[in-house]
Amino acid sequence: MTRKFDFQTVYQREGTRCVKYDMRNIIFGNSTVLPMWVADMDFPSPPFVIDALRRRLDHPILGYTFRDSDFASVLKSWLFRHHNLSIENDWVQFVSGVVPGLVYSILTYSNPGDKIIIQPPVYTPFFESVKDHDRVILENPLVKDDSGYYTMNFDDLEQKAKEAKMIIISNPHNPVGRSWNHEELFRLGEIALKNNLVVIADEIHSDLVLSGAKHVPFISVDERFKEIAVTFYAPSKTFNLAGMSTSAVVIPGEKLRKSYELTLQKFHAWLGNMMGLETYLSAYTDGDEWLNELISVLDENRNIILEFVSKYKDVLSISGPEATYMAWIDFSKLGFTDDELKDWLINKVGLGLNHGLGFGTGGDGYQRLNFACPKVILEHALSLLSAELDKLK
Ligand SMILES: Cc1ncc(COP(=O)(O)O)c(C=O)c1O
Hints:
Blueprint: H1 19-22, H2 24-28, E1 34-35, H3 47-57, H4 70-83, E2 92-95, H5 98-109, E3 115-118, H6 124-131, E4 136-139, E5 143-144, E6 150-151, H7 154-161, E7 166-170, H8 182-194, E8 198-202, E9 229-233, H9 235-238, E10 247-250, H10 254-267, H11 274-286, H12 288-311, E11 326-330, H13 338-349, E12 351-352, E13 354-355, E14 366-370, H14 375-392
Parallel strand pairs: 1-12, 3-4, 3-7, 7-8, 8-9
Antiparallel strand pairs: 2-10, 5-6, 9-10, 11-14, 13-14
Pyridoxal-5'-phosphate binds next to helix 5.
């Protein structure tokens, strides 16, 4: 397939202070593992985004900068084009990152000691942002069938919701790669409405839905859900702009929005980064074609992984992913303890993956592999893995 954009050049990322490569020693105790962990991509950000940054630098004064209505309108138009979601400009606010946004939401809509539901195995900062602020985690663990396919446990959620103030969902879900469907989100929303829960919908991975699946925004499911939802979006995963610290929150309900704005005022958290703004505007304005190509590359990489896992199906298994560029791989049939698995992957295989237990309940025996990289890197990683797996036979 001929593509307009380049997703196959291997860039030397060492020495750029990038977390993925330059923090290997700290994370893995080893600076030579092939890093396939933290959620950024080994692809360059789109060339038109880099050009937008360059154009801004043609003016040498980098002073205080504000966001005009373009900040909301480019997101509004993007969400309509890509997810058939209609929003109003007034519902949109800047946030420097989705995780800080989760924290502002927790501080706004709950008090110390309140219970907040999360659905493990799930993105680690969901745990931290609740615990760090003396709220209490109520786990509503995902359930999986024999094929490893994850769904929500609604019976358990019905019970937990009676005691909780809020629920934080990952839609699509990191790390299990589910793209929640209309029916699932409807059931969740009904339970939230019945129990007066605020729903924090982290939709940072919403653009990274692979072929065969579709993203359903939580607030698109039912008009009533707009009154109880706070949704986060960002170009950071989609366009590999995590270093730019520019994301957005969408709060349709006036009551929820006003109280969130009060929290922002208290933290003086509105200024943001001028260069981040340039990249955000450019990506959401011009990014459609680039994203189409990215998805086709991610589809190919997903297929490479699925084929690999099926070749080793006696010891490995995986379901999906429907979305995200994360493969959530079950290594439990190898029979290692968690510490042995970690040690084997780092010191024998030479791969730096995210250890499953970091995602909480249900992470036991799993590893998360980031496959957003040129094909040669992925194939090299899998060849390292197959060499060690073959030795275990
Ligand atoms: C579900 C989810 N939310 C949030 C983030 C990070 O968001 P930010 O860098 O904007 O804080 C990630 C990054 O991996 C993620 O997977």
